Amino acid sequence: MSISRTTPLRVAVLASGRGSNLQAIVDAIEGGQVQARIVAVISNKKDAVALERARKHGLTDIFVDSKPFAGRPDSREAYDLMLLERLQQHEVDLVLLAGYMKIVTGVLVNAYANRMMNIHPSLLPSFPGLDVQKKAIDWGCKLAGCTVHFVTEGVDEGPIIIQAAVPILDDDIPETLAARILVQEHKIYPRAVQLFAEGRLRVDGRRVLIEGAKPEGEAIISSA
Ligand code: GRF
After folding, report:
1. What is the pTM assigned to this prediction?
2. Could you give the CA distance from residue 121 to residue 184 in angstroms, rounded to a whole number?
């Protein structure tokens, strides 16, 4: 991985829903905190708010329909092959999954090994999958949080780049906890992208080492 780049990192964001993480990254780029360029926002949902946000910021928005592949035994791989073509057309260096509600296959994972990130609203490896805020409350956890990790074929299993923690309060319901976690998601995802853009992430087995990290660490531990 290069330490410094002469051209801005070319990023694609894959999102299926409201796209608040996309927005946080767009804002961080526009605000100069992240040196990158979003060259495509891609969705499997035609009416995803994320695509609207992209259009509002003059970004290329792409809807890739999964229906033509329905029923095929290799429907997921065929879909990802189509996505891969789009990513290659746009010369994408880094792929960001941000509320992308499809499981990515080896087709994409291998093509973008250590160059594809995901954000997940739990402190992995606790609570991979769905409804994780409810699961953390029900389990009786006192801390919850979010994780940015590189994407591997195992769902929510890839090497962890950065995490942020928040408390779970006695009167929390999944929605209140999700909102508290989301504030941190919007901080750590742009941070992870900037660390990548600076060429400071080194994957060593399961560990992601951050070159030049402050002695006290780069992770954010938050109480609000
Ligand atoms: C976030 O909570 C993210 O952690 C999870 O899906 C949600 C997406 O939210 N993977 P948004 O679409 O970015 O607002």
Report:
1. 0.94
2. 9
